Amino acid sequence: MQRPGALGNVGRIRRAGVRVAGQCVHVGTSRGIMFNADHLIDLLIMGWLSNVPLAIGSILTLGVFFDRIRIFRGLEAKSRVLATRVIDALVARDLDGAQALCAESNLPVGAMLHEALRWQNIAVDDYDRILATLRAEMGRELRRGIWIIGTVGSLAPFVGLFGTVVGIIRAFADLSESGGGGFAVVATSLSEALIATAAGLGVAIVALILYNYLNTRVGSITATYGRAAERLVQAILFVESGATRAGKRAGERAEEGDGS
Prior knowledge:
By secondary structure, this protein is an all-alpha fold. Mean pLDDT is about 75; it is low at about 1-35. The protein has one domain. The chain is built from nine helices and no strands. It has helices at about 1-35, 35-45, 50-70, 75-90, 95-105, 110-115, 125-140, 145-180, 185-260. Helices cover about 90% and strands about 0% of the residues.
């Protein structure tokens, strides 16, 4: 008497197992669809209100970064070599040779040294002020456009957050229009919202890394300019002190000759 019931229970368990297995396959298939490339592109297109500004910011960031890298490539090493050659010429009291080296070079440090060598018979403090002004101008030129990367890095999370809010608003609108239906109704809009957040954070992280790297390079190059300016002042003082000592010795010899 109990066997048919037992067999019926087994049958119900098997059918339930099939239904559960079918649901598992369905969920796994939906998950695969959720994370394939086509669906991701659809989500990015749906969130165009935030993704388009993020894409524009990314293009500007990469453009400024590669432009600065092109300018910074080898600049520090070449500047040190040129400064050393100019200083050596000054120490050898070859002012014309030092000016010629600066004039032939297309490096910013060459323009700075050439401008400083045009000034003669002025105090050391005046030399320092002239060189400080020239270094400030060159540092501003080195930083040109880097502010764009910093702006993108600081604004990108907020743009992504804006896209997230828009996606959530759209999810609740879909839920109200459907009159219920559970998570499946709002899944796409919530995915769009999360994609916007991820895109904003990704753009911000990359932009801030590039921004800090470029600022580090600018600081290293400007430090090279500062050392070149200090060595120039020291070389000028060395030449002037040598000329003063030579003048004193010549005067002493003249006095000795008159006394004899």
